[in-house]
User: What shape does this take?
Amino acid sequence: MQTSTYPIGIAGQPWTEAHKAEWLARQTRHRSYRDDVLQVVDDLRERFAIIEYGTVRYGDEAYPLLAIRDRNWREDLPCALVTGGVHGYETSGVHGALAFAATHLADYAGLLNVLVAPCISPWAYERIHRWNAHAVDPNRSFRAGGEAEESLALMRLIAPWRGRFVVHIDLHETTDSDESEFRPALAARDGKAHEAGEIPDGFYLVDDEHNPQPEFQSAIIAAVAAVTHIAPADANGQIIGSTVVAPGVIQYPFKALGLCAGISDARYTTTTEVYPDSPRATPEQCIAAQVAAVRAALEFALR
Assistant: This one.
């Protein structure tokens, strides 16, 4: 364990509002949500129904939040939820969700009501960051009273269908910047010591420890293994500090942590984790792995 040497804050003390303002001033826009996401969704309007389920505002910037679904949403069918971009820097989650919608969403018409929310955190997408503009992690905020408007907006969107979801797959990445930037920043923000970790090389899944579905997770791992490599356990039999319970699978308590994958009350839930910094994977492979994971999840739920 080591004390954080993050350049903002005082070691051992949580950030003040002044420290958060200093952090915010350092954030730079690197890419366009409008060009990369809104334009792609707009191109799908002739084929699918597009739902604007809220707007996130930071200063003079406003980001419409969009979801995609089949036009023939049927009340007699079970529902499926696909989410991406809860952490804006996790690129293949966003583009994997968009690619799935463009190429395979229509395949499930008449079988499942599939709702795709491709970019939950657009401000963070543009800045390639984990947090929102208030230095809050949206993927710890999916709970009543949560601090991230991005998370609350998605919860409001799905509320009418709670109890009807059979499957929810939330698309994420684990990157080298987790260890170089985001974990040190988290430790500094909370006034804690930073404990260096190991970034796994490969794809893995996070199952819900309070609702484990091992066959479901294994079906996704098998499908993704045809696209990219699966992360092995480390010397301690772990991935990112959690025990590997099956090849490429660890567990977290979804609801207790306020994770996106815990919001739907679906029987089958998972969080994907792609490793885009691997020398053995290309950006295209990472997106294809996300699409393969979504398809495997929905196919399993339909069995």
